[in-house]
Amino acid sequence: MRLVPKRSWQLKNLKLSFLFLTIGMVIASAYTAYCVFTKEEVLQANPKLWGVVIGVYAFTALSATYYFVLNATYRRRKRTDW
């Protein structure tokens, strides 16, 4: 499987999908940060929840990075009429 699709319509659809995923993950990260700051005692009592918190932040970073890669590729192909 290719990380960046060959066809421009596939690239555009994948870019749009990752845009919505990234927006959703940013909202989830904001809510996670809110929970970390307001419910510290719950997180200190259950260390497994820290894995979830770190996972949310890591997945947000990965989806945002992949979106920016797709966006740069889409702009480059759009400019060159590929």
Give a summary of the structure in a few sentences.
With 82 residues, the protein is mainly alpha-helical. The chain has helices at 8-38, 40-45, 48-80.
Note the topology.
Elements: H1 8-38, H2 40-45, H3 48-80
Helix pairs in contact: 1-3
Q: What tags apply to this protein structure?
A:
about 80 residues, mainly alpha, 3 helices, about 0% strand, elongated
Order of helices and strands: HHH
What would the principal axes of the Cα set say about the shape? elongated
Estimated radius of gyration: 17 Å
Low-pLDDT sequence parts = none
Largest sheet at a glance? Answer: none
Helix content: over 70%
Mean pLDDT: 88
How would you describe what is shown here?
The chain has 82 residues and is an all-alpha fold. The chain contains three helices and no strands. Helix 1 (8-38) packs antiparallel against helix 3 (48-80). The longest helix has 33 residues, at 48-80. The two termini are 21 Å apart. The relative contact order is 0.17. The mean pLDDT is 88.
